[in-house]
Design brief:
about 20% strand; binds magnesium ion; binds NADP nicotinamide-adenine-dinucleotide phosphate; Aldehyde Dehydrogenase, Chain A, domain 1; alpha/beta; about 500 residues
């Protein structure tokens, strides 16, 4: 651990357990055992506040990945897992949720440090939200039902359709919500009775390693959850194409998602893809402006804008356009950009130097394209990867800052005149993950909901998520859903059973 990381932890009164965890030699968790990578290859973990080394963890080889998938398959086929009673599985999941809750502060610190997330949001959203998801899915194992069907074949038959777990799940998650996305995959897969192999993002693997300790402590049989840390381009790729993987559940970029989808399909594996977005916020002339302004703090600046459903392009009715732009700029200027472990920080750093460079590049592109920079636009400090929350006005749908996913704290605003035009502008994008509409006119809100092509539409808010509601994109934002019964269904397959009497 570098001295900068140590003082980041100490100055912000991090728990001794957080420091102790980071100081250990971290390993992968495969088949119930803690192991190093074959050849002892390792990857460094960095604190994006200082671009400074936190620790290192194993960089798995193809053999390690193969061992993990085979362990998950053996366990899936074993009586210990397949005969576990639904209520016992629920109990295990609840026990794990309780352990996460006990260690919530430590987990939040590990996640904030490794991913650069502001600690307050990390506690309230990443960790607390994950516990909710685990508890929601922990209620499902005893409620997965089949049905008897009224067949019309002459003679006497009993015929039914029942649900079975799909098999071994290969889960791949990104760096922007490392713990959360891992729990989304884990909870639904386990509730369905699957086993899984999970690969976290290279930049953010620490909370997954801590989580594996809790899985072991909760008493899950060996091989149910296997954690393989390493590179997406090698072992991620290998996992997706592995013949013993029955289901691939991927969250990440649209570009990689396309390749993952193609590989999984060629193997005839089931596949769910949660991909990128460029979600519109449509603000009508009768909108509550304070609500709109407050929503932007969550919708586009939360997690430094590194949110797939970020409301990163906004369309505002001409009648209130300047007033909204000014109010958003005033509120945005008050945001505190700071160290991730400081509880007064609103916005931490960007995850990496390449992501920082890409966002700064988009900010210059926006200026060159003729958008009006209303606030922000600068990199902050010499250490680390901080960027000011940035607002552009007078944008158009032809600009790259409006069309492309920036994945940073950049909002692009433009005016509109009619409802029809607002809907056309909102739909004019390759993505369709989410959208929001701000108006006091309920009929108008519902007309918009019906016409906007997005997997989630919020009215007078942006970015609410709940375990009982499916989350996932239309168009190039993905395939299938996470959360809700819809996600559970995707980890199940249907068996038809006939008996002739
Ligand atoms: P990414 O580059 O696609 O990486 C995502 C994951 O895929 C990482 O674990 C990565 O591993 C792995 N990976 C990379 N190449 C691979 C390959 N060829 N085969 C298999 N796995 C591979 O995405 P990112 O830049 O980390 O994340 C940001 C993106 O995720 C954004 O586009 C965002 O919108 C999207 N996202 C979507 C949702 C949603 O629910 N729709 C939620 C969060 C984020 P390495 O880290 O080792 O490269
Ligand atoms: Mg890191």
């Amino acid at each position: 651990m570098s001295s900068k990381v140590l003082s980041h932890l100490q100055d912000n009164n991090a728990h001794d357990e957080t420091v102790a965890f980071i100081s250990k030699t971290l390993q992968m968790y495969i088949d119930g055992k803690w192991i190093n990578a074959q050849n002892d290859a390792r990857i460094q973990a960095y604190d994006p506040c200082f671009n400074s080394e936190i620790t290192s963890f194993p960089s798995a080889s193809n053999t390690d990945l193969d061992n993990a998938v085979c362990a998950a398959r053996r366990t899936f086929d074993s009586n210990e897992w397949s005969n576990m009673l639904p209520l016992q599985r629920e109990q295990l999941m609840h026990r794990l949720a309780n352990l996460i809750e006990e260690k919530a502060d430590v987990l939040a610190e590990i996640e904030a440090l490794d991913a650069g997330k502001a600690i307050s949001g990390c506690r309230e959203v990443d960790i607390a939200g994950s516990i909710d998801v685990l508890r929601y899915f922990a209620g499902w194992p005893s409620k997965i039902e089949g049905s008897v069907r009224p067949v019309s074949i002459p003679g006497q038959h009993i015929a039914m359709a029942v649900k079975e777990p799909v098999g071994v799940v290969g889960a791949i998650v990104p760096w922007n919500w490392p713990f959360n996305m891992m729990i989304w995959k884990f909870a639904a897969a386990i509730a369905a009775g699957c086993t899984l192999v999970l690969k976290p993002a290279q930049q953010t693997s620490l909370s997954a390693i801590y989580f594996a300790q809790l899985v072991e402590q909760a008493g899950f049989p060996a091989g149910v959850f296997n954690l393989v840390t390493g590179k997406g381009s090698t072992i991620g790729n290998k996992m997706v194409a592995h013949p013993l993987i029955s289901k691939v559940s991927f969250t990440g970029s649209t570009e990689v998602g396309r390749q993952v989808g193609a590989m999984a399909s060629s193997n005839l594996a089931h596949v769910t893809l949660e991909l990128g977005g460029k979600s519109p916020m449509v603000v009508f002339g009768d909108a509550d402006i304070e609500r709109v302004v407050n929503a932007t703090q969550q919708s586009v600046f939360f997690n430094s804008g590194q949110v797939c459903s970020a409301g990163s392009r906004m369309y505002v009715h001409n009648s209130i356009y300047e007033e909204v732009v000014e109010a958003i700029a005033a509120k945005t200027k008050e945001m505190k950009v700071g160290l991730s472990l400081d509880s007064t920080t609103d916005m931490g750093p960007i995850i990496s130097s390449s992501q920082h460079a890409s966002i700064m590049d988009y900010i210059s592109i926006g200026q060159r394209e003729g958008a009006r920079l209303v606030c922000g636009g600068k990199s902050v400090g010499d250490d680390g990867f901080f960027i000011q929350p940035t607002v552009f006005a007078d944008c158009t749908n032809t600009m790259r800052i409006v069309r492309e996913e920036i994945f940073g704290p950049v909002l692009a605003i433009q005016p509109f005149e009619t409802e029809e035009q607002a809907i056309q502008l909102a739909n004019d994008n390759e993505y369709g993950l989410a959208a929001s509409v701000f108006t006091k006119d309920t009929s108008r809100a519902w007309r918009c909901v019906k016409q906007i092509k997005a997997g989630t539409v919020w009215i007078n808010t942006h970015d609410l998520v709940d375990p009982c509601l499916p989350f996932g994109g239309f168009k190039n934002s993905g395939l299938g859903k996470d959360l809700g019964p819809e996600q559970l269904e995707q980890f199940l397959q249907t068996k038809t059973i006939w008996q002739e009497l």
